[in-house]
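Hi support team,

I submitted a single chain yesterday and got back a structure, but I'm not sure I'm reading the token output correctly. Could someone confirm the output below corresponds to the sequence I sent? I've pasted both exactly as they appear in my results page.

Thanks,
R.
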Amino acid sequence: MKRVDTIARVRRAFYVHGWSVKKIVRELHVSRNTVRKILRSDETDFSYERSRQPLPRIGPWQGPLEQFLSSNASKASRERLTLIRIFEKLQALGYEGGYDAVRRFARTWSQTRGAVTAEAYVPLYYAPGEAYQFDWSHEVVLISGVTVTVKVAHLRLCHSRMMFARAYMRESQEMVFDAHDRAFAFLKGACTRGIYDSEACAAIGPRPRRTKTAVEAIFSGKERQYNRRFLQMCSHYLVQPPSIGLGPIAPQ
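Hi R., thanks for writing in. Yes, this is the structure output for that exact sequence:
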């Protein structure tokens, strides 16, 4: 495949300087067939794609290597093997090729796997008034010359992305209720359900007498044991018990 600058030099030599094909071949050190191809096609770039990538060394070991990579990807991050360790395990089975071939195959495999995973996601859509998202953030502010860390409650509408934020000195259950009350008053109503990050419902208070903001216990699947007072708040605003763990509110 010829580079773009070589194609440009051939075209300029023929169309601008009036060189013959023979002179272009002699002066630019390009084959006659290449010069004719450039001039006849009138293209400024040529690309070549292999229909099949030969794998002389890694080909017979493609199956075991894919098994190693799949098994490794399903493990926790602390338990995953490095690519060097996978290469050594493949060598123990009889592989005689080099590490670079394994590395290139692993990179292509990861890119293909990532593309397939990305296609599996379904874009979320929320109807107006269907859901809101609630989360906390910690911000450092200056109050009367003193640096203080405040807790900021965020409530964002999932459809319009309109957000309400209010700062508090503590992240207690009372602050959660107050934030919801003021947010619904500001928004002139409540949604039918709420979405809460797991940290937004994390335990609060001293460890020996820790209470739960929203969720007291998480069971298998989607089953939750909600805090009694939190359920009362949801009942007051006609909000169904929330879904947990869908991630923090993304800034926009």
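A quick pointer for reading it: The longest helix spans residues 99-119. Let us know if anything else looks off.

Best,
Support desk
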